[in-house]
């Protein structure tokens, strides 16, 4: 009993360093692939609902790492920052440097089917614009993606 209690008391101390770590490119890519696998198994609608659910299985690092889905016309299909973004056409969205990041995302999706692209975006944990790189992958004519903030 004491051993179990000691283990339980030490567990937060062991997990704390992991919670504070920044997301990696490998983790980001794996999260996108996990979301696509979820959609293949459970259907698009279930994936859209789970991706958009705040604190759902496709949110990591306190909400800083999340999945999004766009269609090939730039419309948001699902977004880890909430349902208010769904249905909004972001085709002409520009970051502070003038980068039309959704157009770049679509261009990459059509040309290669997957890959990384850079832009600026508001970090939900700091509420500040930061350089961001996102990994995207096409499945069933939808662009699944997730991004990490560069520190």
Question: How would you describe this protein?
Answer:
It is a multi-pass membrane protein. Its main location: membrane. The structure is a single chain. Helix content is 38%, strand content 27%. The chain is α+β, with helices and mostly antiparallel strands. It has a single domain (23-149), classed as 2-Layer Sandwich (Beta-Lactamase). Strands 1, 2, 3, 4, 5 and 6 form a six-stranded antiparallel β-sheet that branches. Helix 2 (25-42) crosses helix 3. The protein is globular and about 40 Å long. The termini are far apart. Residues 3-20 have low confidence and may be disordered.
In short:
The chain has four helices and six strands; from the N terminus they run αααβββαβββ.
Summarize the SSE layout with pairings.
Elements: H1 2-19, H2 25-42, H3 44-52, E1 59-60, E2 65-71, E3 76-79, H4 101-112, E4 114-122, E5 129-139, E6 142-149
Antiparallel strand pairs: 1-2, 2-3, 2-6, 4-5, 5-6
